[in-house]
Write a structure and sequence with these properties.
Layout lengths: L3 E5 L5 E2 L6 H14 L12 H12 L7 H4 L3 E3 L6 E12 L5 E11 L5 E3 L1 H12 L2 E2 L1 H16 L3 E10 H4 L10 E8 L4 H12 L4
Parallel strand pairs: 4-7
Antiparallel strand pairs: 1-2, 3-6, 4-5, 5-8, 8-9
The structure holds guanosine-5'-triphosphate and zinc ion (ZN).
Keywords: GTP-binding, Hydrolase, Metal-binding, Nucleotide-binding, One-carbon metabolism, Zinc
Protein name: GTP cyclohydrolase 1
Catalytic activity: GTP + H2O = 7,8-dihydroneopterin 3'-triphosphate + formate + H(+)
Length: 207
């Protein structure tokens, strides 16, 4: 397994990618069902711990993936202008309540000075690497931006994420429909004119 530099221990050393321990997850969900007053042996719930453990391998697949693997697809096309992929659907899990948050991510970047770009789909894959972990929205946003700087050497990047958090909709404060918007901007895209152009392209025609 390759090391994943974005996963660090308390000393800042890189941790190896993590796989879901299926048996442990299954046993924990069975126990959780007992804890909420359910009977995990009743017919409808009998296979639920196993299903939830299998679902966890998808929901948290990003824990075993690293951004540099995704960004290894590179093409030299001598392009040094803004590239934007917007409306990338994003599903993540809030690390506070383990409930979903769902929305869209928009990613724009100005390639490295040598004009090297990555595949368009890789931007969406990069978002998934960070979204498929227990997360907060701000961290996904900054991790995507920083990965493009670190691994692709981009001259500028802007990432905007808009999402609804089910922990705010179906419990707690009970505010369905509220959307949280986060952004991260690096390099040349901090320039006000470039940033304004990027924002109008990112959000253009949507409002
Ligand atoms: N900043 C940030 N907060 C989040 C995110 N997802 C969930 N939260 C918030 O995490 C906070 C946790 O607050 P706590 O007071 O510790 O937990 P709680 O008692 O369940 O809070 P309530 O949700 O207000 O009922 C809540 O305000 C959530 O809205 C996120 O992605 N970013
Ligand atoms: Zn939450």
């Amino acid at each position: 397994m390759t090391e994943s530099p974005d996963l660090k221990d308390d000393e800042g050393d890189a941790l190896p990618p993590r796989q879901v321990d299926h048996e442990r997850a299954r046993a924990a969900i069975r126990e959780y069902l007992f804890a909420i007053g359910e009977d995990p042996d009743r017919e409808g719930l009998r296979d639920t711990p196993d299903r939830v453990a299998r679902a966890a391998t998808q929901l948290y697949a990003g824990l075993s993936q690293s951004p540099e693997d995704v960004l290894s697809a590179r093409f030299s096309i001598d392009h040094e202008e803004l590239i934007i992929v917007r409306d990338i659907e994003i599903f993540s899990t809030c690390e506070h309540h383990l409930l979903p948050f769902h929305g869209v991510a928009h990613v724009g970047y100005i390639p490295a000075p040598d004009g090297t770009v990555t595949g368009l789909s890789k931007l969406a894959r990069l978002v998934d690497v960070f979204a498929r972990r227990p997360q907060v929205q701000e961290r996904i946003t900054t991790q995507v931006a920083d990965a493009l700087v670190t691994h692709l050497g981009v001259q500028g990047v802007i990432v905007v994420v808009e999402a609804e958090h089910l922990c705010m909709s179906m419990r707690g404060v009970h505010k369905p429909g509220s959307r949280t918007i986060t952004s991260a901007v690096r390099g040349q895209l901090r320039d006000p004119a470039t940033r304004a152009e990027a924002m109008s392209l990112l959000l253009g025609g949507k409002r």
